Amino acid sequence: MLILRCPARLQRLEDALRRSLPRALPVYGAVLNINRGNPGDFEVAVDAWPDFGAVLARRSGEAPVHDSYWNLQAAFYRDVGAYRALLETPGCLRWDAAFHIFGLQDGVATVSQDIAAAKGVELEVTEYYTYLHPDPSTLPEPQLDPDVRLGTLNRAHVELLDSTWAYGGNAWSRRYLGELLERFPSLCLLSRAGQPLCWALTDGFAAGAHGFTLPSQRRRGLMRVLTALAARRALARGFPAYGHTATGNGAMQRLQEALGHRRLPGLCRFVLHNPALARAAP
Length: 282
Description:
Blueprint: E1 2-4, H1 7-18, H2 25-34, E2 42-46, E3 54-59, E4 72-77, H3 80-88, E5 99-103, H4 106-119, E6 123-132, E7 148-151, H5 158-163, H6 171-183, E8 186-191, E9 196-202, E10 208-213, H7 222-236, E11 242-246, H8 250-258, E12 262-263, E13 268-273, H9 275-279
Parallel strand pairs: 4-5
Antiparallel strand pairs: 1-2, 2-3, 3-4, 5-13, 6-11, 6-12, 6-13, 7-8, 8-9, 9-10
Helix pairs in contact: 1-2, 3-4
């Protein structure tokens, strides 16, 4: 296992991952961030260099044992055997901690399941659809409702975001959301009084994340406006316009398809290792 730190190697990795899109999207997004100042303090681990067969993108440093939000890793492989070997390499992962691995390839889940079965580690797998806009430049400039204005979020909004997020409700989730707000782009639509009505964040893998509209403000087209704006801004920064949507969230699926986003084949699987530890978060 190697941690790539050399800028030339990281640029070469970015170029290789671009040729493997869309399967490499989450890892590619993380490497784009690393090569543009590394605001999330990420690192990438490969099984070998330069002829790598598998890559993990993740936060650098060691997370608290219960913090599966910090310990979130994206995976991409060219060879599933190399991926399995990377995960089994001593020091690559803490199998006694709570952590997520996610990716767009079937082996991301099956390899974790095989290794976890041998180690007696419990898993939970959550499936999402991944949507990618092929060309956000074709999106028309959204027209804002006269009663709302465009803004951004900051740490003062963490409690609101955490209370409306299905995976929130603990100290680790609030820290995670606060760091996203400080480190990566966010957008929101505000009322005349400055109250957030609808918002969307960006995570360390360059994916749109944590989109939400207050129930009282739904059916006004606010999320449609915000999704189009976020896609155009991602394009302007040189990033892909993509995100993961719950398989049961038909409304968001229809909205993205109406805007021209394409649902990628298969599923994005988030594999939570040691979920009992994660649920013990304060």
